[in-house]
Amino acid sequence: MAEANYTTVTLQVHRFTPRAERAERARGGSPFARKSSPFGGGADASARRRPRGKQWVQEYIIPARPEDTVLDCLMTIKRMVDPTLAFRYSCGHGMCGSDAVSINGTPTLLCTASVRDWAKQPSALPQVDNEGFRHIGSERAVPAESEATAAGTLSIDGADRTDANATDATDAPDTAAATSAVSNTQAASGSLGVIELAPLPGFPPQRDLIADIDPMLNQIRKLTPYLQADGVLATTSEGKVDVFEYLQHPDQLAKYETLSNCIACGVCEGSCPVFAGGDAFIGPAALVWSSRFINDSRDTKAMARMDAIDTTDGVAACQSVRACSRHCPRGIDVGEEMWQIVAKVRER
Q1: Under 8 Å between Cβ of 148 and 155
Q2: Cβ neighbours of residue 280 closer than 8 Å, sequence gap 6 or more
Q3: Residue 339 burial (C-beta neighbours within 10 Å; 0-12, 13-18, 19+)
Q4: 216: Cβ–Cβ under 8 A, 6 or more apart, which residues?
Q5: Which residues, 6+ apart, have CB-to-CB distance to 157 below 8 Å?
Q6: What pTM does this model have?
Q7: In 10 A of CB 254, how many CB atoms?
Q8: Residue 193: which H helix or E strand, with range?
Q9: Within the chain, which residues score under 70 in pLDDT?
Q10: How far apart are CA 58 and CA 145, in angstroms?
Q11: Which of 64, 246, 314, 316 has its C-alpha lying 20 to 30 A from 287's C-alpha?
């Protein structure tokens, strides 16, 4: 009886296999970064935009329930259909941030994204033409994969299976008819829809859905993301070390407590049009980590931290679009924090 709750969902996965020599190449610095800036290293814009290797979209049709997560679906594919599919995950409940990808064009975590919320009918998905431009509207409502599905061709585990009773795709009168055929087929079969998966934008892909987030982590490391106090230990009246030497008022804690929840997942950077666009920018994640210690009353290096991010590829590169706030899995208003840290740097 439990199996009756299962229907099907289609996952369109953007896959990538790097060239053998890619792993051996050293990453170059950004040509736009100022030489005095500590953030000049990392993957360059060309590596982000034009990864070298084999790229293709593979479609998987698997049984699923609306309450399943997208990570559950990928695990089903990995265990039962295609063991070569590569993706990253760890805790599985939104605490580690290791499974950040792009779902239907939106950066988010696999383990917190449910099939119910993200599965869409093909006509609702933004389509990409051969030149990489997304189209919104009814003119290009059905991608090539969906047209093949309407014609009776289903791709499971990378292999095409054609229904002998299906009509040829060239017999379809127009795109609107193909869209109607797909919708009717899915409605009859009880399909939950289609989910498009791609690596996290703004980072060089390593393999399939795994993005190289080392550039982000290196930027955070350069900002010394740890408390730097004055080193003077408080003592009691008897001359003994006081174990509560770093007591804070609740109002002081409130200034950075939310920021300390950042899990460095990269969702904010994948949403940022400046960072994901390939321009030289330290990125919102590194600025959040810097702001966390700048706002900590116990830290004595606030001025040095602000000097470090007061560069052309630091706070000056932030365009205040606030796209970084939309899908933070930890509920941090990253855009507001960016505005606050920029104001502090300029007013100091």
Answers
A1: yes
A2: 30, 31, 32, 33, 39, 40, 45, 312, 313, 317
A3: middle
A4: 203, 264, 266, 269, 283, 285, 286
A5: 60, 81, 82
A6: 0.72
A7: 11
A8: strand 191-198
A9: 1-4, 21-51, 123-189, 243-245
A10: 9
A11: 246
* Residue found by looking up tokens 């966390």 in the block: 292
Residue 306 near residue 348, CB atoms below 8 Å: yes
Question: Contact, 315 vs 223, CB < 8 A?
Answer: no
Rounded Cα distance between 178 and 191, Å, is 17
Strands 134-135 vs 153-156: parallel, antiparallel or unpaired? unpaired
Sequence letter at residue 263:
I
Beta bridge partners of 127: 135
| C-alpha to C-alpha distance for 206 and 15, rounded to whole angstroms | 10
8 Å CB contact between 216 and 283: yes
Q: What is the pLDDT at residue 49? A: 52
181 phi and psi, to 5 degrees? -65, -40
Tell me if 87 sits within 8 A of 25, measured CB to CB: no
At 142, which amino acid appears? V
Tokens of residue 217, six digits: 């982590």
